Please model this.
Amino acid sequence: MTAILRVEVTGSQCEALLDTGASRSFISPGAVERLQLKAWKLPEECVFTVANGAQLRIDRVVKGLTMWCGATRLAGDFLVGPVPYDLVVGLDWLTNHRVAWYFQSDKLRTYVNGQWCDLPVVRANDVTQRNGSTQGTRQRTPAEQAYDILAKQVADMTREEATALLRPPSQRYNPPSKGKRKAMVAGLILQATESTACIRHPLQGLYVILALP
Model:
């Protein structure tokens, strides 16, 4: 699923493509130059395979980029690459900000950093192309379908339900100590040894094996 958001970066209006099919977030070289942003050299070049099978090599990143969408402040790292929009917001950003979203009229409802907020959507569709070109809707992957279902369920939760879901557990599970684990294993071995002493024929042995916990 994709949506176009109108965002503000360093006081300038930009368009951001919100795309669940993108594993990382990107910013175009033109936007970096226009907004006079500082891009850092990556310690290791990143290689991505795009929809047409071509490989995209990226070696720069804009760290901690802050953008405003409506009254909501959002931030993240963006790789510098030849993307068709000023910004492409991918799953890394959605995961870091714990965003759940669904489309309703011209609003994108999100759960960001522990609170509900609405982001104004310019337009939303399964496939968004520039320059008036149109392509058929691509088949969505099972992971994307599962994400959309989960996002819809989270978006429909009340504030009380969301608070209960995010509340940490009252107590943590403590695994048995190393000594206890050794004692349990030793007990099972002893039980198996005693059981084999009673075997009189193969079928009985098979029964004993199946009966072991």
Notes: The first strand starts at residue 2 and ends at 9. The beta strands are 2-9, 12-19, 26-27, 40-49, 55-69, 72-80, 87-89, 102-104, 107-112, 115-125. The chain has six helices and ten strands. Residues 178-211 form one domain.
